[in-house]
Amino acid sequence: MAETTFSFTPQVFTDTQRASVFGSVVNLAQFQPSHVESLLESATDKILGVAPHYGKKQVLARIAFASRTHVLVVNLDGTPLQKQVARRTLEPLLGSGVMKAALRMDAVVAAFSLDIQLLLDGGIDLLSMSPTHERESMEAVFTMLGELSPVQVNKAKANALFKLGEGSKQTTTEQLAQRAWVARRVATWPNAQVACPINASSIPRQHLAVLSKLVRDVQRLSALKPPTTKNEVDPSFSLKGKDLQVKSSRFKTRLQSHNPEVIIEQGKKKISGHIKTTQGKRSRVGCNAKALCAAEGPLTVTTIGKELPTIAEAQRADVVLGALKQTNNITSKSFFKAIWLDGGRVEPKSKSKSKSKDKCKAGLALTATTAPLSIAFPRPLNTSQKAAVHAILSPEPTTVIQGPPGTGKTTVIAAAVMNRPNSRAAGGGMYLVAQSNVAVKNIAEKLASVGFLNFRIFVSKDFHFEWHEHLYKKIEPLLIRSDKMPDDSVGMQQLLAGATTILCTLSMLSNSRFGLVTRVVPVETMVVDEASQIEIGDYVSPISLFSTTLTKMVFIGDDKQLPPYGQSDVSTLQSVFEVKHLREQALFLDTQYRMPTKLGDFIGRNVYGGRLKSVHELTSRCWQFVDVPLGKEKRDGNSWFNLAEIQAIMKEAHRLTRLRKSFRIITPYDPQRGLLEKALKAEKLNADDKVFCVDSFQGNEDDYILLSLVRTSNIGFMNEERRVNVMLTRCKVGMKIYSSREFVLGKAKKTLIGKLARSMGEEVWMPFE
């Protein structure tokens, strides 16, 4: 395709009564220096607007450069040779002699660095000048345009131009050109002129590579978020004047006020609305509520728009953007170097710690044949657990511990807490954090069970109030809800009552109200549980926040269990266990106590290369497969369900309930989870905290586990051994697996589940009657 031309009249600003802007579109193969020269000649004020369009995996596919009168759009798909030519041709545009402005300049700089190996200087991030809103929201765009603009903005035109996003396949060439033109005009206003630019050429190459990857990973994760969310709400609802009052029935899909736009459907009726307030499970929605009638059946409520970044995610993005602008020094922080920069060592902060460096290395190298120092704990610890506790308490700045299922990761954490020296500089604290509230709660219960009560656990109101209050009954006196935190240091000191062991989620550390806690009890040691589920970019914010007090980071997890969210779609995501120099230093907890011996031995052989031992009072086979030959998988959107398996599981649920046995039901698919929960309620069985998807059950266990595999024609999730490992390792007494015998021994025979079925022959199968 040869060069094409077009023209348009800008429409976002109401004063736009000017001549048309002329544009040209050039493919990489036809790109010539003359195209750049012509554009630069038209940029008499040395300012260009930039608008990117990202293709598959958020790789830069097209980019538009705009002066006041001309726009150049470059299609970047091409061969490596063409990209090499493009690098030389594009360089004059990217130098510091011309200011470039884009809404999200951090992503543009990262794209040039990663995709074309070019360095962009003089880059202005326009959304940085919209601090009152999330950078990913349309409100941020409107605020930027409205606050910086000396003229009125046509909000409808701006919304139509920018709402599709920078990765939408529906973005036309003219829309891309107009975005660049708008960015250029905003950059001419006074506020933009004083903005701090990104100059990639002045950033060390290794640092730029890390920062660019951090930006790209966030882009890829954002692309995975669905554009709409079907919110599960109770069938009953009420009307309050013009407003609708509804009650969310599931935490994961609850209505949230920060994503306000919704579509409400009842039968053939379809109306739009917006969320006014949310309190616990209850939400008030502004809409034409009089059009609805309770007698006409339940409602369907769908949130419009992608879920916005959390406070922690937004803070991470701000820190990385600041590093690109070189307004912060995160890349020089010790723990940043230790994680990202070739294993750069974190040196102990005192001479006494430095002297014990060799001794500490010896502690990290402890094996089952080397006994560490004596550790006081109310329960016996095995040798690998003692070695892990010793490593946590050592002055070595980073410690990595791999703990397979049932090996006592929370026991190790509890023992480290109880043996931690009382004398800490400036009252420094040990912070026990995890990705999920449930994992944090499990640590708190473990501490309480061994008699250690000098801690506080912080929980967000959103998670606790009306949703999960029942989970915290055992530790209620030690719980502090986020909305109950005092606003002054004296009040916080009284609430903490001298406790220097603090438990919370990783995201809670970024909460502005939580800053008072870390001022009263500075973060000295951070122990991260579920570290295999945490993408290393999530440590950017705490490393930045607590670099002056943090002296040790401990990562505990298992890379044979659940990976960071999105890793199956975004292969570049890493936990600390995928970082070679960190993985190499990991200690291994080598004995599991949860699963009966035969199951533990099977997992040890097939998942952990024979390194995992089992100690359990039950030594006979504990698993059974139930053949559900008539069960067929059925599609529900992008997921699946299987009605026959639900029928079979209800029979076993009745039996276990009659026998007063404790059990849980696990399935890999959310529609199946929902139908199983409804079936329990319909059968008058307890459905509270009874049915789980795999991803929400890691770290949990029960006496009996019922697994609904759902699939009967394609392997699906069973290709993901890490998720299957989690499913198979939750039982303490027994497990039943529901599927088709023909399927498990046929298409799925090479999976971990297929191997488990074959390990004991025909005796593991029972028919569904």
From TrEMBL:
Protein name as annotated: DNA2/NAM7 helicase-like C-terminal domain-containing protein
Domain DNA2/NAM7 helicase-like C-terminal: 574-738
Annotated ranges, domain DNA2/NAM7 helicase helicase: 381-449, 493-565
Family membership: Belongs to the DNA2/NAM7 helicase family.
InterPro entries: Coronavir_polyprotein_1ab (IPR050534), DNA2/NAM7-like_C (IPR041679), DNA2/NAM7_AAA_11 (IPR041677), P-loop_NTPase (IPR027417), SF1_C_Upf1 (IPR047187)
Keyword terms: ATP-binding, Helicase, Hydrolase, Nucleotide-binding
Entry superkingdom: Eukaryota
Segments forming a coiled coil: none
